UniProtKB/TrEMBL annotation:
InterPro entries: Quino_amine_DH_bsu (IPR011044). Residues 326-348, 391-417 are annotated as: Disordered. It comes from the Bacteria. This is S9 family peptidase.
Length: 417
C-alpha cells in the first residue's frame, strides 16, 4: 500500500496537533490539550515518526502518523522533560535525544536544565534532568555507542560536550554536571545549529561565521569556520542552519541591514548554502523583510518572506549537476495576514507569523497564514498552489508544521525544526 504524505499541523497557542493527509487535507488523527514548543519544533525519527515537546505538560511525545495503517496509536511514547523547551535533537540512530531549556515567556535567561532521553532503555523509555548553565543553548548529538551531547552556549560562547551515558546515569534531583570537554567559541552570539551524521561534524552559526567541530573520543576538535561572505556578497549573518539530506548541503538565511528591529522591512535576506562534500559556498538575494526558517523539498528549497508590500513563497531550484548553483525559479504571492508585522514595530512581538514545511521525499510545500486558520499547499515542481487547507483553530503566531513522506530520509537531519 502506498501511503500519502502527511502534515503535522500544530497550533501551539490553542493546544492542538492534527495529522492531515495530503493533498486533500483529510484529518487522520488529532491531539488536543497539547502545546508544542515552537522554538524546538518537530524532530524526524526513524520509522516515519516525529517527536516534539509539549511545553505545558513537560513531556516529549513521539508520534507515529502512520500508526493506523500499522495497527497502533498516534502517540507511541511520552517521556517527562524539562521545559520551556528551547532545542531538541537526536543521535543519528534516533534512539537517544536531548532537550535544552530557554526563556519561555520570560525576559531573561533563568533555566539551566538539560534533559537526556533514551527511548529504548533497559526498563523502557528513560529520561534524566541535570543542570548545566543558564542560557538558550542549542544542541546536537554526535553518534557512536555512547553519543556525545554537545551544547552550543552564548556569553561566553563555547561548545560543551557530555557523554550521553554519563548523563543518563546521573542521580535524581537535577544535580549540576560539568562537561567532559569544552571548546571555546570566539563569539557570544551563537544562534543556529546543525549536524551531519555522515561526517560527524557539527555546525554552529555565529556573527563571525559558521563554526565547525568534530568528535575525537570524548573531545571536540575545531575546524576552520565557514564565512558568511560568498558568491560576491558579504555582510550580515545567519540565525538558522538546516541540513539538506538530499543534496548534502547546509542552508541558512543571512540577514543584513539596520540593527533596529523596528526597521525590519529594510532587512536584507540572502539564501546561503554550503556543499558538504565539495566545500563550495554561495549566496543569493531573496528580497527585503523578514525571512527565517526554510524548508527542504525533493528538488527545491523554500523560503517564506514577510514584508509590508506583500508576502511571498520563494522557491529555489536545487542544483542538479556538479558546479551548478541554486537559482530562484518562482516567487509565489501569499495572502496577507490581518495581524502581520507592521512598519515601525518589531516583527515578532504580538504579531502573526508564518510556518513552512516540506519533505525531502516530495514536491509539496506548506505555508501557514497565522491568525486565519489556513495552510496554503504548493507544488514546488509546478510552481503553483494546489489548495488551501483550513483548520478549526486560528494558528495564532503562525502555528508550526512538519511534512512527512514515508522513507523520505529526513532523519539524516537529526535536529528539531
Amino acid at each position: 500500500m502506498t501511503l500519502p504524505p502527511r502534515l503535522l499541523a500544530a497550533d501551539q497557542v490553542a493546544g492542538r496537533v492534527s495529522v492531515l493527509d495530503l493533498p486533500d487535507g483529510r484529518e487522520r488523527a488529532v491531539l488536543t490539550g497539547r502545546h508544542l514548543a515552537e522554538h524546538a519544533g518537530f524532530l524526524a525519527l526513524p520509522g516515519d515518526r516525529a517527536a516534539f515537546v509539549d511545553d505545558r505538560a513537560g513531556e516529549l511525545l513521539v508520534l507515529s502518523p502512520y500508526a493506523a495503517e500499522r495497527g497502533g496509536g498516534l502517540v507511541e511514547t511520552a517521556v517527562p522533560v524539562a521545559v520551556p523547551a528551547e532545542h531538541l535533537a537526536a543521535d543519528p540512530a534516533g534512539r537517544r535525544l536531548a532537550v535544552t531549556t530557554g526563556l519561555g515567556r520570560n525576559w531573561s535567561t533563568w533555566s539551566d536544565l538539560l534533559t537526556v532521553v533514551d527511548l529504548d532503555g533497559p526498563r523502557g523509555p528513560d529520561a534524566v534532568r541535570v543542570r548545566t548553565r543558564t542560557g538558550e543553548p542549542g544542541v546536537t548529538l554526535l553518534g557512536g555507542p555512547d553519543p556525545l551531547v554537545v551544547l552550543r552556549h552564548r556569553e561566553p560562547g563555547e561548545l560543551a560536550a557530555y557523554r550521553h551515558g554519563r548523563l543518563l546515569a546521573t542521580p535524581a534531583a537535577c544535580p549540576p554536571v560539568e562537561p567532559d570537554h569544552r571548546l571555546p567559541l570566539p563569539d557570544d552570539d551563537g544562534h543556529g545549529d546543525a549536524h551531519d551524521p555522515a561526517t560527524g561534524r557539527l555546525f554552529a552559526a555565529a556573527g563571525s561565521g559558521v563554526h565547525r567541530a568534530r568528535r575525537d573520543g570524548d573531545r571536540l576538535v575545531a575546524e576552520p569556520p565557514l564565512p558568511w561572505a560568498a558568491g560576491g556578497r558579504s555582510g550580515g549573518r545567519g540565525y538558522y542552519l538546516r541540513l539538506d539530506p538530499v543534496r548534502r548541503m547546509l542552508w541558512s538565511c543571512v540577514r543584513g541591514g539596520p540593527a533596529d528591529p523596528e526597521s525590519w522591512p529594510e532587512w536584507t535576506n540572502d539564501a546561503w548554502w554550503h556543499r558538504l562534500d565539495t566545500g563550495a559556498t554561495g549566496r543569493l538575494d531573496l528580497g527585503p523583510g523578514l525571512v527565517f526558517r526554510l524548508a527542504v523539498a525533493a528538488r527545491h528549497t523554500a523560503f517564506a518572506r514577510v514584508h509590508p508590500d506583500g508576502d511571498e513563497l520563494v522557491l529555489l531550484a536545487a542544483p542538479t549537476a556538479p558546479g551548478e548553483d541554486p537559482r530562484i525559479t518562482a516567487r509565489l504571492p501569499l495572502p496577507a495576514m490581518s495581524g502581520a508585522p507592521r512598519r515601525g514595530s518589531t516583527p515578532w512581538d504580538g504579531v502573526q507569523r508564518r510556518a513552512i514545511a516540506a519533505s525531502p521525499g516530495g514536491s509539496l510545500v506548506a505555508v501557514t497564514r497565522g491568525g486565519h486558520g489556513e495552510i496554503h499547499l504548493f507544488d514546488a515542481d509546478r510552481a503553483e498552489q494546489v489548495t488551501t487547507l483550513r483548520t478549526p483553530t486560528p494558528l495564532d503566531e503562525g502555528g508550526h508544521l512538519a511534512l512527512l513522506t514515508p522513507g523520505d530520509g529526513a532523519t539524516a537531519d537529526p535536529v528539531g525544526r
